[in-house]
Specification:
This protein is of the alpha/beta class and about 725 residues long. It is built from 29 helices and 21 strands. It has a seven-stranded parallel beta sheet, with helices on both faces. A six-stranded parallel beta sheet has the order 16-21-20-17-19-18, with helices on both faces. Strands 2-3-4-6-5 form a five-stranded mixed β-barrel.
């Protein structure tokens, strides 16, 4: 079906080349349809004006206010030495605050005539500070004149849409352009199936577009927004439902563990019983593995909830059923660590083909980029012959040379660090598509999981295994209370005296070459204070060893060390030969040293909420309680401090991921999943609109199950084509 011509009309034809160029370059709008979907950010009522009291610094704002007074000054300057320079200062007010406007030079004449006291207007410009007062320099403005036939009442009550604007294009110019193209909204093809729309009492798409751009009442805005939210949620969920439907058509080998094989032998060896959560999630995974289409499952687990155990049992089940399992880790440190812990957990079951190996044993090999040639060749041989049932590695596993005998299951650790292309390449290694299990320790709110990983089924592990200890977290305000920091180092010494170990985490390594170009730039004194470089591992380690932690065994670990050195440092720390490990976030994921009980995070405000939660999960992994100290120089009232207080106040990762989402924009969270989407989320807020997303997912699943090709829904197909342009389509293909 052809796309609707009226909405596909290039803006160049409708608005002229100059305006169209600015819209394309600064707002990414190319067609009439794009412009109609550029919704107002908020609405001003002429009666109740913007609060000048809460203007943000350095942002482009539009305010509606009244001129209180205007004064013309003359002054002498280099350009106008005889005192002929002119400056017009206009003070505007909205009842909540006052704001100064300034105009210079020839620019003073028009505003001097027009901006008389008592005049109301919309002003738009960038907020700056001059002489400690907020001001707008040379703002663009539009006088608000009530037409004679408009009664004062209706004029004051009208809603003025304020659009996301740029310095090159003020909000009201965008508004005027939209009024020009608004008649085209009548031709918008509705993507929602009529039954769904009527069943939920939603207005039609043309009506929603009219109401969002030209509302008469607040109820109009509500109607329009609830309708447009449904569009976004539903079209995205249909795309994901089609992906799941297509995956369900792919063939895969069903992998059922044999009743008394490797898995049973492994379970019999376990010194503890699995938690209820682990048993429930394992059952979901085994049910998926037993089907003849590929499993696509996301396993979310709190830090330390025992995800590795669940993944290992799935891998053993696959080996039992005659297949091979591959586990992909994002870093070499992590791959080595997984390999070590899997071999330890399996004992003689990991010694297939060796003397002393158990009868059901298999070989567990490690494959990373920095391995020696001989070891690498042997590992690849074991994979090709099927001798090795389990391989653990970094993306070295994906290289063309690596051949599998029969790849049945791929486990990907830490989803967000792993590119879609890489998952795809590994999937291509099986004779038929292998089953896929993705693990993440970053808890994702349910709706985000539905929106971002909507093509994966989700399992959640939220119970901590028995024997895990609680972690106490505290914020250490180093600038306000330096003695708190001194006490923090004393606490580290106390833990070491009890026979425990500690981590100190810093944001930076410290051996970076200083870039002369960067350092040449002059910084303001505020910048200097605000933006001292983040603390570095090498500097902090040296200061601690000479100062507060003198006499303790302090080592460093960071990403630029040689892999063998990194591994050696980790082994010494794991063996208890090091008291304090000063590291970057290379320890964020998966590092498991049960004897480490304390962690001090320097410049904690420079890390994200979920990153702090991940880091904290490295302590309290044994029977002794954990302690995490978040050191910051940020003032009490700052947003950064509030974020740290939130992390200190709860150990619930799902709660923290909500806080994280509310503080950042959705775009950051949806990240790659939104990339390439021409109509990415505009009115849908992932956290607030939980119900809409969940309902849209159910509706989408029903529509796709009944009509996978959407033959009965031409409007929906048009909307899908707009959403899934090439890049986006590939993203979902590879999901």
């Amino acid at each position: 079906m052809d796309l609707v011509p009226a909405l596909e009309e290039p803006l160049k034809k409708v608005l002229g080349p100059a305006t169209a160029k600015v819209m394309a370059e600064h707002l990414g709008l190319h067609t009439v349809g794009d412009l109609l979907h550029h919704y107002p950010r908020r609405y001003e009522e002429r009666g109740q004006l913007t609060h000048l009291a809460d203007l943000p610094m350095d942002e482009h704002v539009t305010v509606v206010a009244m001129v209180a007074d205007a004064r013309l000054h003359t002054f002498a300057s280099a350009k106008a030495p005889r005192g002929k320079g002119q400056r017009l200062e206009v003070t505007i007010t909205d009842g909540s605050g006052r704001l100064q406007l300034v105009f210079f030079g020839n620019g003073v004449h028009k505003p001097h005539k027009e901006l008389l006291p008592g005049t109301r207007a919309m002003f738009s410009g960038k907020v700056s500070v001059f002489n400690r007062r907020l001001q707008l320099a040379h703002p663009a403005y539009e006088l608000l004149r009530g037409d004679s036939e408009e009664t004062v009442e209706s004029w004051a009550g009208a809603l003025i849409p304020i659009y996301p604007a740029t310095a090159k294009l003020e909000s009201w110019k965008i508004g005027k352009a939209i009024q020009t193209v608004l008649p085209g909204a009548q031709e918008a093809v509705d993507p929602l199936p009529p039954a769904l729309r009527e069943g939920r009492g939603l207005v039609t798409l043309p009506e929603a577009l009219l109401k969002i751009h030209r509302p008469h009442t607040k109820a109009d805005i509500e109607d329009a927004r609830s309708r447009l939210k449904w569009d976004e949620a539903f079209v995205l969920q249909v795309a994901l439902a089609r992906r799941r439907h297509a995956d369900a058509q792919l063939p895969a080998v069903a992998r059922r563990p044999s009743p008394d094989g490797l898995l049973t032998a492994f379970d019999d060896r376990l010194p503890f019983t699995l938690t209820e959560g682990q048993q429930k999630v394992s059952k979901e995974i085994f049910d998926d593995l037993a089907t003849e289409h590929p499993m696509h499952r996301l396993l979310q687990g709190e830090v330390g909830s025992g995800k590795t155990m669940v993944a290992l049992r799935a891998m053993l089940a696959t080996v039992d059923a005659g297949g091979q399992a591959a586990m992909l880790a994002p870093t070499e440190v992590l791959a080595q660590q997984h390999h070590r812990s899997v071999v330890e957990m399996m004992g003689e079951l990991a010694e297939g083909g060796m003397l002393g190996g158990a009868e059901h044993a298999t070989k567990v090999v490690l494959l990373t980029g920095s391995m020696g040639t001989a070891a690498r060749r042997q590992a690849m041989l074991d994979l090709a012959t099927g001798e090795a049932g389990i391989v653990i590695g970094t993306h070295a596993l994906i290289e063309d040379k690596v051949q599998f005998h029969d790849l049945g299951l791929v486990v990907v650790d830490e989803q967000h660090r792993f590119g879609v292309e890489q998952r795809d390449a590994l999937r291509g290694k099986g004779k038929q598509p292998p089953h896929l299990l993705v693990m993440t320790a970053t808890p994702i709110p349910r709706t985000v999981a539905m929106t971002v990983f909507g093509d994966l089924e989700t399992s959640v592990l939220d119970q901590l295994p028995a024997g895990r200890s609680p972690i106490a977290s505290h914020v250490v305000p180093a600038a306000d209370k330096p003695h708190f920091l001194a006490r923090a180092w004393e606490r580290v010494r106390e833990e070491v005296e009890k026979g425990h170990q500690a981590y100190v985490v810093c944001p930076r390594i410290g051996d970076e070459e200083d870039d002369p170009k960067k350092s040449g730039k002059k910084k303001s004194p505020e910048d200097e204070a605000e933006k001292r470089p983040p603390l570095a591992v090498l500097d902090v380690a040296a200061q601690l060893a000479k100062g507060p932690l003198q006499g303790l065994r302090v080592e460093v670990l960071h990403g630029r060390m040689h892999p063998d050195d990194k591994d050696a440092v980790m082994r010494r720390f794991a063996a208890g030969d090091t008291d304090v490990l000063v590291a970057t976030t290379v320890i964020e994921v998966g590092v498991n040293v049960p004897n480490a009980t304390a962690m001090v995070i320097m410049d904690a405000d420079r890390f994200g909420v979920s990153q702090l939660h991940q880091l904290r999960g490295r302590v309290g992994r044994g029977s002794a309680p954990g302690l995490c100290l978040l050191v910051t120089e940020m003032p009490e009232a700052s947003a950064a401090r509030q974020r740290l207080n939130a992390v200190a106040s709860t150990l619930d990762g799902f709660e923290l991921s909500r806080i994280d989402l509310e503080q950042r924009r959705e775009g950051d969270v949806l990240g790659q999943a939104q990339s390439g989407a021409r109509t990415s989320l505009r009115v849908l807020a992932v956290i607030e609109d939980e119900e809409v997303i969940a309902e849209a997912r159910d509706e989408a699943a029903q529509v796709v199950a009944a009509d996978p090709e959407l033959t009965a829904f031409p409007g929906l197909r048009v909307a899908l084509d707009a959403l899934l342009d090439e890049e986006r389509e590939q993203y979902l293909e590879k999901g």
